[in-house]
Every structure is written in C-alpha cells, then in structure tokens.
Amino acid sequence: MSKKEKKFEIEIKETKENESRVNEVYIDGRMIGRISQINDKNFVASNQNGEMRVKSIDEGIQWVIAEFNLHSI
User: Fold this and answer.
1) Are 52 and 44 in contact (CB under 8 A)?
2) pLDDT digits (tens, 9 = 90+) for 5-61
3) CA Rg, the chain, in Å?
4) I need a surface site. Which of 29, 31, 54, 62 has the fewest CB within 10 A?
5) Are the C-beta atoms of residues 53 and 44 closer than 8 Å to each other?
C-alpha cells in the first residue's frame, strides 16, 4: 500500500525569552515545538507531547519534526 507524498512548509523563528534564545518550529503556519537554549552546550526541545534534552538546535529541530510526523497520522 503506497501513501501519497505530502508537502508542507517548515519555518524556524528565533526569539529571545528571559535572556535565552528560543527557536520556534512552525509547519504550515502552526507552531509544533520549541528549542530552548539552557547553556552553551545544552538545549531542550519541547512540543505538546513532552520534551527532550538535545545537544544542538539542529538535533532539536529534527526531534520536533519527527515527533510531529509520528503523531500527526
């Protein structure tokens, strides 16, 4: 059984919150998660289902998108 390929737009917006950098991940205009910087080497990726400690912003973005794909079926 094959599935039709879905296309969507991913947007990353960087903001400042309480002296720390926060990256918000949007898919088709809807915010699906955030990556917050704890210190120079640690980040926390979060979405409506939970959060995970990651080592980089890129790793956090990948986790948020993977969680979105997993739970948006």
Assistant:
1) yes
2) 778 899 999 998 888 889 999 999 999 999 999 888 899 999 998 999 999 999 999
3) 13
4) 29
5) yes
Q: Element (H or E) spanning 45, and its range?
A: strand 43-47
Instruction: Please list the residues that pair with 38 across neighbouring strands.
Output: none
End-to-end alpha carbon distance in the chain: 15
Residue 30: strand, helix, or coil? strand
Nearest Cα neighbor of 35 from 45, 26, 21 is: 45
Tokens describing residue 72: 């948006």
Give the residue from 48, 39, 46, 42 showing the smallest Cα distance to 61.
Answer: 46
Give how far Cα 3 sits from Cα of 6, 8, 73, Å. Answer: 9, 15, 12
pTM of the predicted model as reported, rounded to 2 decimal places:
0.81
Instruction: State the Cα–Cα distance between residues 52 and 43, nearest whole angstrom.
Output: 9
